[in-house]
Design a protein that fits this description.
Number of helices: 3
Number of domains: 1
Order of helices and strands: HEEEHEH
Radius of gyration: 14 Å
Shape: globular
Strand order of the largest sheet: 3-2-1-4
Largest sheet: 4 strands, mixed
Strand content: 15-25%
CATH topology: Nucleotidyltransferase, domain 5
Length: 120
């Protein structure tokens, strides 16, 4: 097994452990974050009804910038997803880091979402 496969398997194990307790409801949906090597994605999900309320990512034209896969891009995505969630009537969320460490781009996205008005 290669090093990247081991890292991926470890993230999947962490993700499963987190998802045992983190559930999104209509009153408090789940803010899920996914980061790839070059982009970052965030979506607010109601797990009870199984629907995505709002989403944002660095592939969208209004959020694309000089740095898509860096902390600045993550901050833009965090701000955008928070503004869209508040416009959709969601003010409180539960944060799902999706098995990624709460550091770097994931932390930048969370901090920007908090600064834009979302409560975790």
């Amino acid at each position: 097994m290669s090093k990247t496969n081991k890292k991926h398997a470890a993230r999947i194990r962490r993700k499963a452990h987190i998802r045992k307790t983190v559930r999104g409801t209509a009153a408090r949906p789940r803010l899920s974050v996914f980061r790839s090597a070059s982009h970052i994605y965030a979506q607010v999900v109601d797990d009870v009804s199984g629907r995505t309320i709002v989403s944002a990512n660095t592939l969208q034209a209004d959020l694309r910038g000089d740095g898509s896969g860096n902390k600045e891009g993550a901050s833009r995505v965090g701000t955008a997803v928070a503004e869209r969630a508040i416009a959709a009537g969601v003010s409180q969320v539960v944060f799902d880091r999706n098995g990624f460490l709460f550091h770097g781009r994931v932390k930048a996205l969370a901090d920007a979402a908090r600064a834009a008005g979302l409560k975790f």
